[in-house]
Specification:
CATH topology: Four Helix Bundle (Hemerythrin (Met), subunit A)
GO molecular function: protein C-terminal S-isoprenylcysteine carboxyl O-methyltransferase activity
Helix content: 55-70%
Distance between the termini: 40 Å
Number of domains: 1
Largest sheet: 2 strands, antiparallel
Enzyme class: transferase
Order of helices and strands: HEHHEHHH
Protein name: Isoprenylcysteine carboxylmethyltransferase family protein
Keywords: Membrane, Methyltransferase, Transferase, Transmembrane, Transmembrane helix
Number of helices: 6
Strand order of the largest sheet: 1-2
Shape: elongated
Membrane topology: Multi-pass membrane protein
Strand content: under 5%
Structural class: mainly alpha
């Protein structure tokens, strides 16, 4: 089995793990009443971009090998780095969902009895879910030896992040006021101690 095939298999396993982690939280979230939301066309564009870059384009590549012209030689060290990044992404993703519990939502929503979560990964960054997506995108770039697919994940993540994060923080400031402002002062957005 070639290194490139190993990378593809590991990417598929990572996406399956992502879905297995997300599914029960998505089901539970439907049972908690939404009291406020900030859904918008730009949010839909961000979510669609992330889906395209982190799932559809790489899934198409894994299934068909296209665009083959953008392939480069797979390296064992790169696949190993990609596997570690993707596994770390899934760990952060799981911890984030666990900490949020009934507060979790795929869109910008405030749920009934919403609380500000500052524990677990939220003690280090305000948006660890985005941290996990960034790690997934980086992992994908190392696992799949194709320039287009590698850049698609990073581009999809960047579009989602930059279209949503400011709106998300404004919403949290409206809901939690000085408590969220103090939280912003002591944490970074997605990379502990840096950004």
């Amino acid at each position: 089995m070639s290194i490139a095939v190993v990378g593809k298999i590991l990417w598929v396993l990572g996406v399956v793990a992502w879905y297995v982690i997300r599914y029960p939280f998505e089901r539970r979230a439907k049972r908690v009443r939404v009291v406020s939301h900030r859904r918008s066309p730009t949010e839909k564009i961000g979510l669609a971009s992330a889906l395209l870059g982190l799932a559809i384009a790489p899934g198409f590549y894994v299934a068909t090998g296209m665009p083959e012209a953008a392939d480069y030689p797979a390296r064992a060290w790169a696949v190993a780095v990609g596997a570690v990044l993707f596994a770390t992404a899934m760990w952060v993703f799981r911890r984030t969902h666990k900490e949020l519990g009934r507060n979790w939502s795929i869109t910008l929503e405030i749920r009934d009895q919403h609380q500000l979560i500052c524990s677990g990964p939220y003690a280090f960054v305000r948006h660890p879910m985005y941290t996990s997506f960034l790690l997934m995108a980086l992992g994908q770039a190392f696992l799949l030896s194709n320039w287009v697919v590698g850049l698609a994940g990073l581009t999809g993540f960047a579009i989602l992040f930059f279209l949503r994060v400011d709106k998300e923080e404004r919403m949290m400031l409206e809901i939690f006021g000085p408590q969220y402002r103090a939280y912003m002062d002591r944490t970074r957005r997605i990379i502990p101690y840096l950004y």
